[in-house]
Task: inverse folding
């Protein structure tokens, strides 16, 4: 069975492209932390300040996961504190997170041209 994703509020996007539209709308509206849950029990989070974002992929609820990093990218972030209390300073500049999310939703894995820091 193919993996499907829903937003934490239960909304079911019609496609990866529809998910990106909602994600952009949420960022524009000031909702800067978004979580999606997959039918396989994985979690995907995007936490942003509208300039940079942290994209996290977790295998299950207790997994510390992994997150996208772009060490050579210009810019800096003071970090993000997630609603669950985790703090991280590793971010990627926009619009990279949207491309990363799109690929994960479509293929189930991060794009091959991205760097990930594994927190496990």
Result:
């Amino acid at each position: 069975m193919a993996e499907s994703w829903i937003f934490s509020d239960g909304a079911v996007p019609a496609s990866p492209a529809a998910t990106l539209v909602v994600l952009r709308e949420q960022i524009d509206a000031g909702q800067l932390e978004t979580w999606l849950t997959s039918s396989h029990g994985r979690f995907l989070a995007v936490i942003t300040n509208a300039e940079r974002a942290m994209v996290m992929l977790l295998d299950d609820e207790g997994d510390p996961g992994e997150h996208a990093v772009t060490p050579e990218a210009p810019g800096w972030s003071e970090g993000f504190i997630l609603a669950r209390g985790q703090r991280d300073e590793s971010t990627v500049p926009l619009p990279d997170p949207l491309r990363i999310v799109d690929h994960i939703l479509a293929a189930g894995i991060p794009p091959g041209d991205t760097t990930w820091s594994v927190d496990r």
Q: What stands out?
A: Helices lie at 16-28, 96-107. Residues 16-28 form the longest helix (13 residues). The mean pLDDT is 84.
